[in-house]
Amino acid sequence: MMADFDLLSVQEARNLLYKAREAQKKLAELSQEQIDRIVENMALEAEKHASFLARMATEETGFGNETDKTIKNIFAAKEVYAAIKDMKTVGIIGSDENKQVWEIAEPVGVIAGVIPSTNPTSTIIFKSLIAVKSRNAIVFSPHPSALKCSLEAAKIMAKAAKEAGAPENIIQCMEYPSLPGTRELMSHKLTDVILATGGPAMVKAAYSSGKPAYGVGPGNVPVYVHTSADLDQAARHIIESKSFDYGTICASEQAVVVEREIKQDFIDKLKKYGAYLLSEMEKERIESILLTGGTLNPKIVGKSPQAIGKMAGLFFPAEIKVLIGEEKEIGKNIPFSIEKLSPILALYTVDGWEEGCDVCIKLLEAGGLGHTFGIHCQDQAVIKAFALKQPASRIVVNSGTAFGGIGATTGIFPSLTLGCGSYGNNITSDNIGPQHLINIKRVAFGIKGMMIKTTKSGTLQPAKTADASETEKNISVDRGGNVTVSREEIAEIVKRILSEMKI
């Protein structure tokens, strides 16, 4: 029976890809104005259904909470849309008059979108928007535990796109997801690019598929609190960020590194905003359920402090938002020092910012290389010192890292797919957007001659070439990105250049 399901899944992946290829060919012919209308309608419909999809995701997966998942869906619909709505993704998207170079956008084609169980609906909204904005088709492979909400999110986005003028099958989702089916989706000849969001094994599979892939590494985000920090603000930001959707955003804080002289004052501030400092006995109880078989226990992911406490035989009042345990050691076998994807936070005490910097680096090396680092500090020299040393792609200053890393409270590009660069074995350190889903063709006019030998001593000097203004004087580009130049004019330009180069 299992083999039959796997075969069904593999065949489904192939069928969806063939439909996607035909749909993408039609989408590629649309103008910038048509694409923008489609994307706008998708964003509006996603926002309308934000709460409904959040409720579905929470009930189906058991991860996070409806209120925060609604906010994530709205972020994907509104903030991402606001960032991409004026982006040029059709025709000539840029030109350099001095260098005589034009840039022309072309879609990459068909995208395989791998969806996690922790953030299924917001990720589908996000990936659908950036795929269609760049004139690509996308086929989703959802996590089996988030199948229903993923199918519904994809259905809403596909319907909104079609109603605004997109061809059918531009957004599709597998109904029979499996590991063999997902592998087929990623490695099939019709797949052009992979957007992989998921666990380390799935991201590794994406990079091993033989296809270009944008994967993301794990987050094990340390945040350093300097003596110059606004402690009340820092505590509030950290608790709001860490408790959001019960810690399921990979950019959320995993460990706080604080200087000894402000430690007690800072702990008091953390408690003010809903933190609970575990006793040694309570910490041991929590540690006992954090790992299973040497890896994070999936049963604690995205659960409330109260639910986690119950698993460990502990009781925490309803007002408690984050559980904090003091730690000294760092390593993959030290439960509090790894990525926990839950409202559980490690607390490290250091003497001076130099020691704090070293501890943060070790935490990133333990499982979050290239992802995100946070610092609460008013001293620009210290901020700069940390930024230069930390092996992280996002350095979030005086803001919660869950929000700052995705671009909700900072000026970086709003995204739910965060690259970790070569630190984390990723191809980019960027926050992924439509700009990563286009091929850019460059039209380059001759403006200088090739260096040629003119003397016995081997002295080089440039050959003559056509005057750039003459080359382009009869060439123009209309607002739609169309080049207007006749065959006769092209022939004359080529003839003149060849003559002047004596070819």
Q: What is the element layout, followed by pairings?
A:
Blueprint: H1 2-27, H2 32-48, H3 50-61, H4 66-84, E1 91-96, E2 101-107, E3 110-114, H5 120-133, E4 137-141, H6 147-163, E5 171-173, H7 179-187, E6 193-196, H8 200-207, E7 213-215, E8 221-225, H9 231-243, E9 253-259, H10 263-272, E10 275-277, H11 280-290, E11 291-292, E12 295-296, H12 305-311, E13 322-326, E14 344-350, H13 353-365, E15 370-376, H14 380-389, E16 392-397, H15 401-405, E17 438-444, E18 451-453, E19 460-462, H16 468-472, E20 476-477, E21 483-484, H17 487-500
Parallel strand pairs: 3-4, 3-6, 4-5, 6-7, 8-9, 8-15, 9-14, 10-13, 13-14, 15-16
Antiparallel strand pairs: 1-2, 2-17, 11-12, 18-19, 20-21
Description:
With 503 residues, the chain is an alpha/beta fold. Helix 5 (120-133) links the parallel strand 3 and strand 4. Helix 2 runs antiparallel to helix 5 (120-133), helix 2 crosses helix 6 and helix 5 runs parallel beside helix 6. It is globular and about 85 Å long. The chain contains 17 helices and 21 strands. The mean pLDDT is 92. It has three domains: 2-216 and 433-439, Aldehyde Dehydrogenase, Chain A, domain 1; 221-424, Aldehyde Dehydrogenase, Chain A, domain 2; 447-500, no CATH class. The strands form six sheets. The chain has a seven-stranded parallel sheet, sandwiched between helices. Strands 5-4-3-6-7 form a five-stranded parallel sheet, sandwiched between helices. Strands 1-2-17 form a three-stranded antiparallel sheet, with no helix packed on it.
